[in-house]
Amino acid sequence: MSYIERFKANYHKFLFYSKGIIEIGLPRQYYFFERRKYLTAFDNLPVGTKKSYIESRVSYYNQLSEQSELNYQTLEVGGFSKQKSWSYYIDMKRYLSRFEDSLKFHFLPGDIRTVPQEPSFVKSRPISPNNQHSVLLKLNRVRHYFFVNDKTRFDDKKNQLVWRGACHQQHRQSFVEKFYQHPLCNVGDSHKSAHDQPWGRPYMNVSEQLGYKFILSIEGNDVATNLKWIMASNSLCFMTKPKYETWFMEGTLEPGFHYVELADDYSDLEEKLIYYQQHADEAKRIIENANNYVKPFLDQKQEHLIGLLVMQKYFEKTGQLRPSK
Known about the structure:
The chain is of the alpha/beta class. It contains eleven helices and twelve strands. Strands 8-7-9-10-12 form a five-stranded parallel β-sheet.
């Protein structure tokens, strides 16, 4: 990848960190004022579709229903500092700065694939009916919340399935070894360690991948980072049933409505590719549904409000704040 390509691929990161550092460096009174403004505006919303939608998302992310007492191994809002990642630090501070210094919480950064013992803020969790202690926040935004404005019509795209990525996990490795030579696919391992392997393929940027009708989303350590921009595009998303979820609520996605579901071993990939090649109208309906699913996540003010309400509920359910209503 050339320096120009690398710059273009990482420009959104420059914007994220520049804006994020400024955003978390404002006077504390501003944050308290903003929190009151957001919560008051929410309380004053008339009962209806918008308020119900916001409440449903807060309940989905934060499923604490009973009062939970935290153990002594907690962090404090006022003492929260950068750990390993600037991205997680900036995203957490966006919310924490709006709350009192003495409030306590648990926080697990990174790819979380199990449910913690204590109520904890996490980026990801397994899709499970027992997620009460996994409280989702919109974390690592710079990596996971990159959307696209796709101007290429579905009909004008290449009639193949595309995927590029690093195959650090066995399930990814198995997939590319099975399909790298398939005539309906342009897939491969783009990590430098695979360059001398027959399934090794050159890096392909997002714009290049958007030239294909079908794009594979395949989970890595937890969720697939490309799922959001695929669902915002005019390409059809193919993936196995997701096992993990984030703020994007992958657990609510419906197969055949938001995406094309594949068997875990990809044994039906060829059959389904041929089907949607021959049934473009059905493919376009699924793409439209996916685009509509993405739209609320583009409303930055609403997203921020939901995050504040998730954190507010956490402190209420751990007995540290009185219920706001």
